[in-house]
């Protein structure tokens, strides 16, 4: 819980810094967010590379875990389908398109805005940001409720980048390679599924 509160504190600090324009590209000449993410990925890579047991543990994982991205995709779409029935002011294809972002808010919101307009695009942006934040803050709770795969699945497309550090610390370094594979596979499905549901 302490780790989640620290993340929230840094998020709030980031919002303040953004509003006050303390860390802009104009001031530094490069993208601070991308640089921070790259450094974060470097630290995760160093952690995995220095722990030879993590790579050995991947070989002992059940091969059925390779189906985790499919489970994440199907589970998310099923949840969106149920939600579409509960909230009738959104069409089923539109709700499925929003859910098909799987946390990849930048790409999915752009696609949905192009196909459906700015209002559903904004909903997609907020919904997918919420997924990422829920994973960052709720990973310890998800671990206790459903095991080490839950934070990976919750992270969706972000399990290979922004939520990877928290997944690594909560689920364990032995799940890092699986998390990257999961994020890459789910990420790859986003443009196809979003455009498919938008075109219905």
Defining key terms:
about 0% strand, globular, Lysine exporter LysO family protein, mainly alpha, about 200 residues
Summed up, the domain count is 1
In round numbers, the mean pLDDT is: 82
pLDDT < 50 runs, ≥5 residues: none
What Rg is obtained from the alpha carbons, in whole angstroms?
18 Å
Decide which structural class fits the backbone: mainly alpha
Query: What percent strand?
Result: under 5%
Order of helices and strands: HHHHHHHHHHH
Can you describe this structure?
With 200 residues, the chain is mostly helical. It has one domain. 78% of the residues lie in helices and 0% in strands. It has eleven helices and no strands. Helix 6 crosses helix 8. The longest helix is centred in the middle third of the chain and has 29 residues. The radius of gyration is 18 Å and the shape is globular. The chain starts with a helix and ends with a helix. The relative contact order is 0.14. The mean pLDDT is 82.
